[in-house]
Amino acid sequence: MNESRVREVLSDLVRIPSVNPGFQGGQGEKEVAAYVRRFLERLGLPYEVQSVEPDRDNVIGTLAGRTDRCLLWEAHMDTVQTAGMTLDPFGAEVRDGRLYGRGACDTKASLAAMLVALETMKERDMLPAVTVRLAAVVDEEITYKGVSALAELIRCGGLRCDAAIVGEPTKLHAIIAHKGVLRFRIETIGAAAHSSTPEKGVNAIERMADVIAFLKRYAAERFPASRHPLTGAPTLCISMIEGGVAPNTVAERCLVSVDIRTAPGQEWEDVWADARDSVASFVREQGWPSGASVVVHRPFLTDFAMEVAPDDPLVLTLMAASNTYAPGRVAVGAPYCSDASKLTRVGVPTLVFGPGDIAEAHTADEWVELAEVVRAAAVFVHTAMHFGE
Ligand SMILES: [Zn+2]
Question: How far does residue 16's CA lie from ligand 1's centre (Å)?
Answer without folding.
Answer: 16
